[in-house]
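INFO  loader      accepted 1 record
INFO  loader      residues=87
INFO  predictor   begin
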Amino acid sequence: MYKKIDQNIFNYFLFSAMFGVSFFRTDKLEGSSFTLTTVKGDEYVFTSANAEDIQELVQFFLDGLRRRSKFVVALMDYQSPGEMGGR
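INFO  predictor   done
INFO  writer      dumping tokens
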């Protein structure tokens, strides 16, 4: 079900493409996992014995970058109220 992907997948993501990261526990034999979600809705699941620590670190970096960023990512086109009725 999951595609095997290269460990260096983080090198391909821009900060602006990352929407969020979440942690969840799995079977003790597998370790725990975290999911990286992009603004397009793609999800990448990573499993590691250190998944919780990695998720916290990635979240820390994302939060810090968002606080210092001067840009936004639009998830949908904006239409002013005057434009909506004319179509």
